[in-house]
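Incident log, structure service

09:12 report received: a user says their structure output differs between two submissions of the same chain.
09:20 pulled the input from the user's history:
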Amino acid sequence: MPVELRKRKASAPEPAPPVKRKNSSAGPKANGKEKGEASVPAESVSGTSDMPTVGDVIDLNGFGGEIETNYGEKVTLQKLVSESKGGVVLFTYPKASTPGCTNQACLFRDAYEPLTSTGFAIYGLSTDSPKANSTFKAKQNLPYPLLCDPEATLIEAIGSKKAPKGTTRGVFVIDKEGKVLAAEAGGPAATVEVVQGLVGSRSEDVGNAAEGENVKKEIETSAAEVESKEKRPKEPNDDKETAEVAADVADTAEALDGEKAAA
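09:34 re-ran on a clean worker, output below:
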């Protein structure tokens, strides 16, 4: 009797390897990166694409947990923002006293006065220990505090944590109301340029507001002069002078309306 041969079932195919994402995929914008510093997708920075973006308003209560200054003081981002005049700048760096991080810290040092002219408070942020950051600060004569976040709680909250570990070089800026003004990765020079752009915009807004306030005061002064002359007894030339002042007030108001329309 012939033996019946049974066919073996084909083994299940091995699962396909995961698709690698390109560095150009969605994630923090990388500008001016140094050699060897590539832009990093959001998924590989903090393990999630749910991270603060420009325009978001953050509830700072408990945001990023507690960190420590290089002086050993326990602080939170909420406390730093509250103590600032116009908001907080956090520039993140992978490791204190390394070439790229030294370059970045010194660029912020050299531009410190203009960068803080509109009320921003500047801080460096890394996972380094207070001792390492204190040495770094003293050696480079840095005029701003360095924040120590060994557990990367704040670094992760602002979207600058690499997976599984590490810190992405970048910059995060938040104003007094908790609104995110900047959140992006980049090389040493690029992170400074981001803040310079924000300071420039703020200075222009302040200048326009001051100019408008000066014009407003001129109008109010001219109107007060007219009212004062109307209250005292009239003299032969009063009507002519009053008409001239009124014309000046009208010209100033018209000029102000023209500037607003042009803006």
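09:41 both user submissions now match this output. Likely a transient worker issue. Closing.
09:42 reviewer note: Residues 13-48 have pLDDT under 50 and may be disordered. The first strand starts at residue 30 and ends at 31.
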